[in-house]
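User: Can you recover a sequence for this backbone? Please restate the input before giving your answer.

Assistant: Of course. Working from this structure:
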């Protein structure tokens, strides 16, 4: 691949990404108020909107308890989970089954689906007696008896008086009001720095900066705030979720929320090459994914200002994929381009021998390549997931560039006065032989390549006018390869 075209394609990729992001503005609904509900069964309050998770990404811990009959404020909704606030100031997440269902309910909607109304609560042998659209109000009349491994049904009455059975799943259990949606950005920081910056400062300021907390736990008179959208890098550990410990409204300390966190980027220098400013800002530029998200009522949360027709979307997708491969190539090419410049600069020192120049070139390539590789890996999230591919690519390029330098450095340098870049003064074929190359893959498959191996004697003329030295270099060429 010609580097020039790759560069053009990479610039195109950056521009397209930028445009795609601009034309996908988020339009969300934030103005809903908290509303009252009642607990119907004793339960644990969790720090996140799921049960205690097994994996780090799903970390959630118990922050308090609620008892049957307790009045609560519903603060926020996420799928089948609700964030509630109780009188003593404890806040946490609870599954909708623990909250009192309302008589007036909304029919769930995902895009434009309608819900069939059945004459009896059975999957087999029922008759469809009507239908109801999503986001319509209905009255809950009766629940089918709960049976293990069976769908739950609810008998409803629609606004126009139709009565029948629907899947309980299709009804919003407690959502007689729009639950609040809170936009939270994800933040990443070096732990030592954020602890130093925030210790002693009011927690209200912290909330103002990083949005309403996911949970509040009260322990021995101290309030502990949970922020699941904050990740702290503690040397080689990524702490998922953060708890902010406060006393009298001021921050005392900042910790991980439940577990010490997962090990990441354990290469030398990775901790010092991690720059939260890049992770928190620049990263969004490359976020090409189309966020087509809905709230639990089926309303679109994000919408595009301009929606291209289907065929144009596909062409765009193909173009973007191709140009991103180029961008990837350019990203990896940069350290080697710089090393090349260094090697050329060093070579201007006419007292240095070719082998020293080669050594400088190789070492700078390896050092720069390594620093660059670690930098990309610890700062751009997507690359973390493709560590091995990334690493092999860098390794291959290092080896490739070193052999390229080796050839060019020895070839272009006058062996007498060390002047850089001699000119070609003809070449002659010395030897020619038929060869067969066999490559065996790990799958056991073989490829056989027939070609000619040629040995050429290249004559070089020193471009230094005072020198005018002629010298010859032996070069080997293989007809199967293209230079
Ligand atoms: Zn010379």
């Amino acid at each position: 691949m010609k580097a020039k075209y790759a560069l053009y394609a990479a610039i195109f990729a950056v521009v397209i990404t930028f445009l795609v992001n601009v034309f996908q503005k988020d339009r969300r609904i934030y103005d809903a108020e908290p509303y009252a509900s009642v607990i119907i069964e004793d339960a644990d309050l969790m720090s996140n909107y799921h049960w205690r998770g097994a994996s780090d990404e799903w970390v959630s811990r118990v922050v308090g308890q609620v008892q049957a009959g307790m009045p609560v404020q519903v603060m926020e909704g996420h799928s089948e989970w609700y964030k509630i606030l109780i009188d003593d100031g404890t806040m946490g997440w609870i599954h909708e089954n623990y909250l009192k269902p309302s008589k007036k309910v909304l029919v769930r909607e995902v895009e434009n689906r309608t819900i069939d109304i059945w004459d009896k609560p059975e999957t087999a042998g029922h008759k469809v007696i009507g239908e109801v659209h999503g986001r319509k109000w209905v009255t809950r009349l009766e629940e089918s008896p709960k049976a293990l491994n069976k769908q739950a049904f609810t008998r409803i009455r629609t606004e126009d008086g139709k009565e029948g059975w629907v899947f309980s799943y299709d009804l919003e259990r407690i959502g007689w009001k729009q639950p609040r949606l809170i936009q939270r950005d994800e933040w990443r920081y070096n732990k030592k720095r954020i602890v130093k910056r925030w210790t002693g400062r009011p927690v209200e300021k912290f909330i103002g900066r990083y949005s309403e907390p996911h949970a509040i736990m009260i322990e021995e008179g101290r309030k502990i705030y949970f922020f699941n959208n904050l990740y702290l890098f503690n040397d080689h550990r990524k702490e998922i979720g953060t708890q902010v410990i406060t006393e009298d409204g001021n921050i005392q300390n900042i910790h991980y929320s439940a577990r010490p966190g997962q090990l990441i980027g354990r290469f030398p220098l990775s901790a010092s090459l991690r720059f939260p400013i890049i992770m928190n800002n620049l990263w969004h530029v490359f976020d090409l994914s189309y966020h087509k998200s809905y709230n639990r009522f089926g309303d679109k949360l994000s919408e595009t200002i301009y929606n291209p027709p289907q065929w144009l979307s596909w062409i765009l997708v193909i173009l973007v994929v191709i140009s991103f491969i180029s961008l990837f190539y350019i990203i990896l090419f940069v350290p080697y381009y710089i090393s090349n410049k260094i090697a050329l600069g060093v070579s201007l020192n006419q007292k240095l021998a070719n082998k020293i120049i080669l050594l400088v070139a190789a070492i700078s390539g390896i050092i720069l390549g390594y620093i660059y590789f670690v930098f990309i890996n610890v700062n751009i999230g997507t690359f973390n997931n493709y560590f091995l591919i990334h690493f092999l690519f860098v390794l291959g390029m290092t080896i490739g560039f070193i052999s390229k330098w080796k050839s060019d450095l020895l070839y272009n340098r006058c062996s007498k006065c060390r002047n850089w870049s001699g000119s070609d003064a003809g070449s002659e074929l010395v030897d020619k032989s038929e060869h067969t190359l066999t490559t065996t893959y790990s799958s056991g498959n073989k490829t056989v390549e027939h070609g000619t191996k040629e040995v050429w004697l290249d004559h070089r003329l020193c471009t230094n006018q005072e020198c005018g030295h002629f010298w010859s270099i032996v070069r080997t060429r293989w007809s199967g390869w293209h230079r």
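That completes the design. The chain is about 30% helix and 30% strand.
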